[in-house]
Amino acid sequence: GNSVTQMEGPVTLSEEAFLTINCTYTATGYPSLFWYVQYPGEGLQLLLKATKADDKGSNKGFEATYRKETTSFHLEKGSVQVSDSAVYFCALFNTNAGKSTFGDGTTLTVKP
Amino acid sequence: DGGITQSPKYLFRKEGQNVTLSCEQNLNHDAMYWYRQDPGQGLRLIYYSQIVNDFQKGDIAEGYSVSREKKESFPLTVTSAQKNPTAFYLCASQSLAKMNTEAFFGQGTRLTVV
Questions:
Q1: DSSP state, B102?
Q2: What would the mean pLDDT of A44-61 be, rounded to a whole number?
């Protein structure tokens, strides 16, 4: 079956620090990969996505590259801001399954 | 604007009562999903539906029921059989016709048993 394993949190960084949140997956076929972000008391919203091997998704300074050889989709940002404090979820969508598989989420806190 | 709307935002239930959470989308998405999220936890799939008048159990369906009479609507009923219903409930929708599209989430309903 499908599964997503995320780096455990919480993660606490100082403003302008470099961020990496690791994500690895197991899936049959060729899933699409996503990072979603959740702010307190809200639903999830798409941060970025990649739909095939070697694709790089990017948005708001965040990046992640679809690595089929290592089955990974690590999230990176070169300089985090206080406003980046949120919970980040890695996910895959496999058309055959018709539903998404989510990691457990990683809570990021950025301190000024 | 197209989107997915959950209501109410906050809901209080007495023990032994059934309550229904609303989820409506105007994105013309085929698939709709209900998730439960407990504090500091990830998402757990309750039910999902890929087509009108059909739905499948997710990982934690016991104590919940759903219907999909219209493409736009996917209400979730939390029954008295659900032992610990206090949680944050999220509804999502996704296109199955367009490849590689993301899920769209509502703002959530926070249910509290009093």
A1: P
A2: 96
Question: A99 contacts in B (CB within 8 Å)?
Answer: 31, 33, 45, 48, 58
Residue B1 above 70 pLDDT?
A: no
Nearest to A37 by CA among A109, A100, A85, A97: A85
Task: Kindly determine whether residue B100 and residue A32, on different chains, have CB atoms separated by under 8 Å.
Answer: yes
Cα(B18)–Cα(A29) distance, integer angstroms: 40
Q: Could you say which of B41, B48, B107 has the minimum Cβ distance to residue A43?
A: B107
What tokens appear for A89 in the block? 């979820």
Is A38 within 8 Å of A87 (Cβ atoms)?
yes
| Contact by Cβ (8 Å): A106, B58 | no
Amino acid code (one letter) for A95: T
What pLDDT, in 10s, does the model give residues B29-46? Answer: 999 999 999 988 899 999
Residue A83 phi, psi (nearest 5): -70, -10
